[in-house]
Amino acid sequence: MRTQDCPGGPLLVRGAASWVGQDGEEHPVTRPVVAVCRCERSQRQPWCDGTHKFVTPRASAQTSS
User: Fold this and answer.
1) CA nearest 12: which of 30, 49, 37?
2) What pLDDT is recorded for position 41?
3) DSSP 2
4) How do residues 12-64 score in pLDDT, each as one tens digit?
């Protein structure tokens, strides 16, 4: 399994057979690449639904100037 960070967006996961969400529930993975929500506002948890594009960025995702 490989992961890729999308700054301000989801975590891309490649090659996983399943994903265990924050609630402890195991979710089967049926695609070669899945996007896991990190903003915690997706209506399709644990999967990203693009909500992060419309919400305030998390403090850890913001860049300092």
Assistant:
1) 37
2) 95
3) E
4) 999 999 999 988 999 999 999 999 999 999 999 999 999 999 986 655 554 44
- Which sequence spans correspond to the domains of the chain? 2-58
Q: How far is CA 54 from CA 10, 32, 48, 49, in A?
A: 13, 27, 13, 11
Quick one: pLDDT at residue 59?
Answer: 53
- Cα-Cα-Cα-Cα dihedral sign, residues 52, 57, 63, 65: positive
Extract the tokens encoding 20: 């265990």
| Confidence (pLDDT) at 22 | 87
Instruction: Give the Cα separation of 3 and 30 in Å (integer).
Output: 16
How far apart are the C-alpha atoms of 26 and 4, rounded to whole Å?
A: 20
55-65 as b/e: b if 16+ CB within 10 A: eeeeeeeeeee
